[in-house]
Write a structure and sequence with these properties.
The complex is a heterodimer of chains A (787) and B (235). Chain A is 54% helix and 19% strand. Chain A has 787 residues and is α+β, with helices and mostly antiparallel strands. Chain A folds into four domains: 195 residues, no CATH class; 120 residues, no CATH class; 206 residues, no CATH class; 176 residues, no CATH class. The radius of gyration of chain A is 34 Å and the shape is elongated. Chain B is built from six helices and ten strands, in the order E-E-E-H-E-E-H-E-H-H-H-E-H-E-E-E. In chain B, helix 4 packs across helix 5. In chain B, the strands form two sheets. Chain B has a six-stranded mixed sheet, sandwiched between helices. Chain B has a single domain, classed as P-loop containing nucleotide triphosphate hydrolases (Rossmann fold). Chain B is an alpha/beta fold. The chains are: A alpha+beta (787), B alpha/beta (235). The interface between A and B is large, with 34 and 37 residues.
């Protein structure tokens, strides 16, 4: 081994603590890169495999009742490969062990056996036999949440008729990776599931013999989706078609895509941050090493080493740190990546996980990590090439300090000289101080930008569940019913107040921008469920006009006062131009609201409702549940308490782990920055500090000079971190919002406080690590030697 | 005879490196008297610096006892030694050891701020003849000026004793004389007991007593009947 290489190894060993601190931060960058890309790749691969194997449809459309003969015409639409008709209806279920009624989306299986499109994959048991009318396949989550075993039965109310159905299998379907019941905002696996069963039984129950009410299509590669949808809509219009939609409006698919996008957003924001901080840390440490070794560098050159040999020597130390961090990051990333992918696969209920490891991820992340280390070292290394042997071997010129107005001001305050030393050190090396502040503040920012999510969810919870939706339950009806049904609802046990809504499928259009959505008609004076403005005040529905949620208005490119084109996909299917009277903030889904009277007038119908919000006497819940199970015309009952609970559970499940992980990551960065700053300062000022010890300053007083500066910088960094964190949170909110939900930019004081405390404590702890070295300063050597 | 301010009994210092034991001091008995200026002379490794470090509370003796007035330094812990240095001792180093980020005045104030009965920094600087350089930073001062700031910093707390380790070692003869004059003046006007380590044998002529070191022991103590003024010293 060459002598310079031996020196490099020894330098590396000597700097182990600082190298480790940097390598850990760098490792975080590499790990988060490997992790997020790995998880994203694996999930995307699993998703597309699942879609492909189970022939996930490209287009869905529903109708009231379309004759089976229409399928031939649908298949003739250019671009359509397969058109599969089916029957799909909601049914109330009576499940053993569950007092409240559950509900299910009942899907008919073709006589031939399994569906051609959107095939459910049997995970347990078998498919129902074609001639057994009572056998069913249930969605796996519904079965596990309720503890169903094969052979168990449930009682379903199919259009008013009760039927006992026997579970012969459980299944997962690409259509229902994420499943929302009608009227619900959160998945509720216990009370809502999917059931596949014999076609004839469903057809008989819902009067759909020889007909279908839903059709799914598979398109040829390169087919024009919009043209197919238009043709399909024309064909289905006479049969009550409500507008075909593609995958981009299919709830489950949209949800999955949104989740994958979130992973993508995180993988774009986090790793670069870590790499930047690592580069800055390498810059600090190598810069200091080179400053300390000026005379040695001069010697190397004097004895004939070339500039590039000397430069390469120091670059190699940086590469060493880079390799060290990269290897750690790979290890953690691979290990956590596999685990996290598995978790996600379970969370999404994929039937399997295809774990993809792409060598590219490793090569890219390693290259990025090592490049960050090299870039960090570059500036200092280039400085070595400029040192001439003679200059390098004489001590550096003393640092020049100057008095300025700020000093005079501080003097007037009667500050001690030790405080003066701190302030002068900061003002003399403002860049260094600024970078330290930036590094520390970024760690706080990372904390805030991840933990604010829980504040946002709290805000969503409060607004959606306590301000907007104050009803205790929502009853969904099997179809449109006369307004008078609200009176009937009051006759159900325990119901104290009932308010009706009507959702009408419509296409909202502004120029080429359009959105298929249910317009919600609400009777004026509704008080249980309210449409709220940004200040959480109830918005009065106008006599004429429509109110849109912010995300919807944005995606249509419209604002208050604009005229919106509305194509109603029910009744006379007419098109109207309606003024937008208000835009509201809404966190769940897209919303369009109208006065029920106005909506009915547009439809040229007497007011009708298809859902009822109720408030109730909780003591009579069981009686209500029983009544609901026996009442024809009810398609489902959503209990808001349970939605809230499930929302809360989801938050609680994630918050502990996430908070711990990010607090650790942020602490790592702070330790990396502060510990290195402190070590470097100590090596630069060891002599000065030791002199003070000789002059009679106590260890505490001497530590104050060094640690006081770092803590002062930390105190500046904390509020700066708040600002940067808020900005990151803004980026994340913008990146995360989808048609399914909007995340408000809400950051509670407690979150700021927590991030401030974590940063401060981590900073203090790393400073104290260095304090031990102050205690061990060699006083005697200072008496004699010159630096 | 005046009262001894320092009294040592058989002070021994051994540096044990594990393989070899190096005897830096081998049983030194010495008294330093109040108001006295002593010069410690000897070859490198003769033990003079080690003794000064022990007297100054920077190092511990391996054996023997050291008294400062009625305080036993050899019985003190680190914290007590720090307090001792802070309240009783002034140090002047070969390489000045000024804080580069503080002006001359501030370097002196650094010490006066933590002393129980200091003089004003300006007065200390006046004593060493630096009235017009008070607001300069160390980098803006010559070596001799820096060393005089260091002396001002050392005496500003009115220490009972001043230890100088090669105070002129880094200076040419002209500036060296200025520094010695400052030390002489402090010794005369404030009556500060002063011990100076030097390699420069001619400096001994300004001392009351000269103590010669060899092999970790005092080889000779010589009393100067007549002391020379620093500017009379020829080097």
């Amino acid at each position: 081994m060459k002598v310079l290489d031996r020196k490099m190894l020894r330098d590396f060993v000597r700097l182990w603590a600082q190298s480790l601190a940097i390598a850990l931060v760098l490792g975080c960058g590499v790990a988060s890169f490997v992790l997020s890309y790995g998880v994203k790749l694996s999930l995307t691969e699993t998703q597309s495999t699942f879609y492909e194997r189970n022939r996930f449809a490209d287009i869905w459309a529903s109708a009231t009742r379309a004759p089976n003969s229409l399928i031939t015409q649908i298949e003739r639409i250019k671009g359509v490969v397969i058109a599969e008709p089916r029957i799909s209806q909601f049914a109330i279920l009576d499940v053993e062990g569950l007092s409240e009624p559950a509900a299910a989306k009942m899907i008919a299986l073709p006589k031939s056996g399994n569906s051609v499109l959107n095939m459910p994959s049997v995970t347990l048991g078998r498919m129902p036999s074609p001639n057994r009318t009572d056998e069913i396949l249930v969605s796996e989550n519904f079965a596990t949440s309720n503890g169903f075993a094969l052979g168990d039965t449930v009682v379903a109310t199919l259009n008013g008729q009760k039927r006992v159905l026997r579970i012969v299998g459980t299944a997962l379907s690409p259509e229902f990776i994420y499943l929302l019941g009608p009227g619900s905002m959160m998945p509720d696996d216990r009370r809502f599931g999917v059931i596949w069963m014999d076609r004839d039984t469903l057809a008989a129950a819902f009067d759909l013999e020889g007909a279908f009410n839903e059709v799914t299509l598979k398109l040829a590669l390169g087919a024009n989706e919009n043209k197919v949808k238009d043709a399909l809509e024309t064909l289905l219009a006479p049969y009550g078609g409500t507008g075909p939609y593609g995958r981009t409006a299919q709830t489950s698919h949209v949800f999955l895509d949104a989740e994958l996008d979130q992973l993508d957003t995180m993988s774009r924001i986090l790793p670069p941050l870590f790499f930047i901080i690592s580069a800055f840390l390498v810059n600090m440490v190598i810069g200091r090493l080179i400053a300390l070794e000026r005379e040695q560098i001069g010697l190397f050159k004097a004895v004939g080493y070339t500039n590039s040999q000397v430069a390469w020597h120091y670059v190699k130390i940086a590469i060493g740190i880079g390799v060290f961090g990269t290897v750690m990051g790979w290890g953690v990333g691979a290990w956590a990546g596999h685990g996290l992918s598995k978790l996600y696969a379970q969370f999404f209920h994929f039937p399997y996980l295809i774990y993809v490891t792409s060598p590219n991820t490793y090569i890219l992340s390693g290259a990025a990590g090592i490049a960050a280390a090299i870039l960090g070292a570059l500036q200092s290394v280039l400085r070595t090439t400029k040192l001439s042997p003679a200059v390098a071997m004489s001590p550096p010129a003393p640092v020049r300090f100057r008095q300025n107005l700020f000093d005079k001001f501080v003097h007037m305050l009667g500050a001690r000289q030790t405080v003066m030393m701190i302030l002068r050190s900061i003002t003399r090396w403002p860049m260094r101080a600024a970078l330290t502040v930036l590094g520390v503040s970024l760690s706080g920012a990372i904390l805030i930008s991840t933990l604010f999510m829980f504040d946002a969810l709290d805000e969503i919870l409060d607004t959606s569940f306590f301000q907007a939706n104050r009803q205790q339950a929502t009853i969904t009806l099997t179809g449109n019913k006369p307004y008078a049904i609200l009176e009937d609802a009051l006759n159900l046990p325990g119901v104290m107040r009932s308010e009706g809504l009507r959702s009408v499928p419509a296409r909202l259009r502004n120029g080429h921008l359009e959105k298929l959505i249910g317009i919600e008609g609400r009777a004026p004076g509704m008080d249980l469920s309210r449409v709220l403005n940004a200040e959480n005040g109830a918005v009065v529905l106008p006599d004429k006009g429509i109110i849109l949620s912010g995300t919807l208005a944005e995606s249509l490119g419209v604002t208050v006062g604009d005229m919106l084109e509305i194509e109603v996909l029910e009744g006379q299917r007419e098109t109207y131009f309606v003024p937008i009277t208000a835009i509201i903030e809404q966190y769940f889904g897209l919303g369009a609201y109208m006065n029920l009277g106005y909506l009915s007038a547009l439809l040229q119908q007497a007011p009708q409702v298809n859902a009822i919000n109720i408030s109730l006497d909780e003591n009579q819940l069981d009686a209500l549940y029983d009544a609901v199970k026996d009442t024809p015309g009810i398609a489902g009952l959503v209990l808001w308490k349970q939605i809230r609970q499930s929302f809360n559970d989801t938050i609680a499940e994630n918050s502990g782990m996430t908070t711990t992980i990010y607090a650790l990551v942020a602490s790592l960065i702070v330790v990396g920055v502060v510990y290195n700053s402190a070590r470097i300062q100590l090596s630069e000022r060891a002599r000065e500090l030791a002199s003070l010890r000789i002059l009679g300053f106590t260890k505490g007083e001497v530590s104050f000079i060094l640690l006081g500066e770092l803590m002062l910088l930390t105190l500046i960094a904390i509020p700066l971190g708040f600002v940067i964190g808020r900005f990151f949170a803004f980026l994340i909110v913008s990146g995360f919002s989808s048609d399914l939900y909007t995340i408000p930019l809400v950051i509670n004081n407690a979150t700021y406080g927590f991030s401030g405390v974590v940063v401060f404590v981590a900073s203090l702890a790393s400073a104290l690590l260095v304090r031990r070295r102050i205690n061990r300063l060699d006083l005697i050597s200072v008496m004699k030697t010159r630096e | 005879m005046r009262e001894p301010i320092f009294h040592t009994e058989k002070v021994t210092k051994v540096y044990d490196t594990g393989e070899v034991k190096v005897f830096a001091l081998r049983g030194v008995d010495l008294d330093l008297f109040e108001g006295e200026m002593t010069v410690l002379l000897g070859a490198s490794g003769s033990g003079k610096s080690t003794l000064l470090n022990i007297l100054g509370g920077l190092d511990h003796a391996t054996e023997g006892r050291v008294f400062f007035k009625d305080m036993e330094l050899t019985a003190m812990n680190d914290r007590e030694l720090t307090a001792y240095r802070r309240n009783h001792v002034g140090f002047v180093f070969q390489f000045y050891n000024l804080v580069p980020s503080l002006t001359a005045r501030e370097n002196v104030a650094l010490v006066t701020e933590i002393s129980p009965d200091p003089m004003r920094p300006e007065m200390a600087l006046e004593l060493v003849g630096l009235t017009n350089r008070m607001d300069h930073f160390p980098a803006e001062l010559s070596g001799g000026e820096q060393q005089r700031v260091a002396i001002a910093r050392a005496i500003a707390k009115r220490p009972e004793v001043l230890f100088c380790d090669e105070p002129t070692g880094a200076l040419d003869s002209k500036t060296g004389v200025q520094v010695l004059e400052a030390l002489d003046q402090v010794n005369r006007e404030l009556g500060t007991t002063t011990a100076v380590i030097t390699h420069n044998a001619d400096i001994r002529k300004m001392a009351h007593r000269v103590i010669f070191f060899a092999d970790g022991q005092i080889s000779e103590v010589r009393v100067n009947e007549t002391r020379l003024k620093p500017h009379e010293i020829d080097w």
